[in-house]
Every structure is written in C-alpha cells, then in structure tokens.
Amino acid sequence: MFANAVFVATLIFLALGFWLMHELHFLVPWRSLILHHYFQSIALYCALLFANILGLTIWIERKFFLRDTGRKLKHLDQEIHSGHSELSEEITAQFGEE
C-alpha cells in the first residue's frame, strides 16, 4: 500500500511541477538569480508538499480501498474454522488447531 501511495504521490507531484513550469515560463531569464537566492526555501517547500501529497494519498487509499477489510477477514475466519472451505484443511494441517 505504501509503495502505491509513493507512486501516486510522485505522479501528482511531477504533474504539478510540469504545470508550474509551464505557467512560470516568463521567469526563465531570472532562473539563476531565483535559484541562487531561494533554492533552500524552494526545496523545503517541495519536500513539505510531497509529504502532504503522500499523506493524502495514503489516507485516500485507506479510506476507499481498505473499507470492509475487517468484515471480510472475519467472514474468511468463520469459513476456515467451520470446515466448509477448501482452505480449511490446508490451514489446519499447516498451523494446527489453536
């Protein structure tokens, strides 16, 4: 889940970066001056922006993709312990009765 969130956050961050480069193309003549004076501030802002985007994507993944996980796992556990599942013999043989 974390790898997917990093991938999505990177895509969003790159898309924002390319859009911003397109919108700020009039600043190209002063690029070296801006980077010389404000590189640390820009880098810090980019790091914080990426961290916020990453947190947002993790929250969205947990909210929408892991919605009914507990209920689904409870149902699977009941099937395994009742013996009506094909997996129950394999799991009982491997882990034994607990």
Q: Can you put this structure into words, describing what you see?
A:
The chain has 98 residues and is mostly helical. The chain has one domain (2-95). Helix content is 83%, strand content 0%. The chain contains four helices and no strands. The longest helix has 35 residues, at 31-65. The radius of gyration is 24 Å and the shape is rod-shaped. The chain crosses the membrane at residues 5-22, 42-60. Keywords: Membrane, Transmembrane, Transmembrane helix.
Instruction: Count up the helices.
Output: 4
N-to-C order of helices and strands:
HHHH
**Principal-axes shape call:** rod-shaped
Biggest beta sheet attributes: none
DSSP strand tally:
0
Q: Termini, distance in Å?
A: 30 Å
Number of domains: 1
Query: What fraction of residues sit in β-strands?
Result: under 5%
Rg: 24 Å
- Roughly how much helix do the residues carry, as a percent range? over 70%
Residue windows where pLDDT falls under 50 for at least 5 positions: none
Instruction: Return the average pLDDT rounded to an integer.
Output: 86
Structural class: mainly alpha
Keywords: Membrane, Transmembrane, Transmembrane helix
Transmembrane segments: 5-22, 42-60
